[in-house]
Fold this protein.
Amino acid sequence: MKKLMVMAMAGMMAVSMFGCGSKKTVEVTQASDLAALTVGVQTGTTGDSYATDEVKDDSQMKRYNKGADAIQALKTGKVDCVVIDSLPAQKFVEANDDLKIIENIWKPEEYAMCLKKGNAELLDQMNAALAELKADGTLDKIMSNYIGDDLGSFEYVTPEGTEYPNGKLVMATNAEFEPWEYKNGNDIIGIDPDIVQAMCDKMGYELEIKDMAFESILAAVSSGKADFGAAGMTVNKDRKESVDFTDTYANASQVVIVRK
């Protein structure tokens, strides 16, 4: 009986240790270093694509609906590292002093908004509004409000007397990607919502934002459930097959987060 109890206790300890994961020290200096690691990513993101290309087997990929869930998996040892966009990575590391960012693994990317293929009229309107925001400095002010040394220095406010004679546009996003888009109570705020609101104000459209899983955005746009998507989205060849993109409004890159 005693032997059985000892065996049972040993089994429970093994399960407990397995459940907690292994917090081994990980160093990544190039993309190929991911080959033997367990990698956490947000499903459907560029980080998901990049990491999938590097691992030996897809079982090494641990995909989560939220970047925060991937970070929690890293902290508990369920994954060896997380691959994610640079700006959300900065926010996660600022809040977790046991983590660090490894940069310069991949080349910089271009962010743009996606639209249903063939919607040339709306694409032209959005590009024209975006160009105006770049020219008058509003775009830079919005970015600076969320990034760098001037945090909170500028709050975009719709100009008094703005009207929306052209109806409503629905924006698809994933509000789990601070500072690009995230939740403040019931509100979705961030760089993308502010830029898009400023664009809609110029174009004469009311804005509605729909929050959904990141991997659902392209399908929502392609099917007409949303007019466009804005979610810190990287322009790449695969996505261009299903949607059109506006002009670039920001640059970013993929980074790796590991435990210190």
